[in-house]
Description:
- The protein is of the alpha/beta class.
- It is built from 12 helices and 8 strands.
- It has a 5-stranded parallel β-sheet, sandwiched between helices.
- A hairpin with a 2-residue loop joins strand 5 (about 110-115) and strand 6.
- Helix 1 crosses helix 8 (about 170-205).
- The protein starts with 5 loop residues before the first helix and ends with a helix.
Amino acid sequence: DFLPNEGMNSKMVSEGLPSDRVSLENGSILTNCKRWPLLIDPQVQAIKWLKKKEDGNLDIIQLTQKNWLKILTNAITNGRCVIIENIGNEIDASLDPVLSRSIYKKGRSLYLNLGGEEVEYDPKFQLYLQTKLSNPHYKPEIAAQCTLINFIATERGLEDQLLAKVVELERPDLEEKARALTAAAINYQIQLVELEDELLERLANAPEDILSDVPLIEGLEATKKTASEINEAVESGKITQREVGEAREAYRPQAAEGAMLYFLLTKLCVIDHMYQYSLDSFLTFFEKSVHKAPAKEDLTERVSSLR
Length: 307
């Protein structure tokens, strides 16, 4: 709770980050860490979020492609965001100056040596590293240069995702209403945080005699009125969201069993290496099972047939 605020959490969820506590904590660490983030992401949930978050200013590379060094060099010079995806246990030594931030100043510009060449460094440059390995082993210097963040899906987080999926298939009207309420709540939270920041800034820059500053007083009144309206809308939305949540809970048994089944499947690789299951393929079969389940009029019977 020290790093994020409600507005920040809401923004990350709207960008596609799973809304469970662990994912939000990881997202907060990623957006606040001073070292380059190295994401342990077997289910590729983090990289999906990052692609949406950084859309429009993003280059995605792999260390196995031929021109990755050229793309990285251009991104460093132009201040773009780079994701190096699907890295293994060994990271190319050419990246050491970037990972260690071996930046030096020459005149008014910043530079670093990359691939034997001097490259101009833009402070807006951002780097993310991602691995699909669930238990990678990196050298101590990599751990010192990067912030390792474990984005492996949790059972509770996956359960919430499966619940949304089954309700979307069974009751699209209900899921659409839940999404609309979530989007509205996100916007309200962001607006409240912005209003608070604006209010504090105005008070910080106010003259000694606050009452003599008419625009400031009018601005404070308008801010207070807007905040009051937003709070009323939030409370109204919470009541509706609670009702929708209660209706969605009827499908939770299937979502809980689905999440448990996925994590059991991921353990089969201990028996034989050939038993490898991705989250995307599991979600595909989960959706097929919903379509193939016998139709029932009674909700309780329908949920039983889904299980």
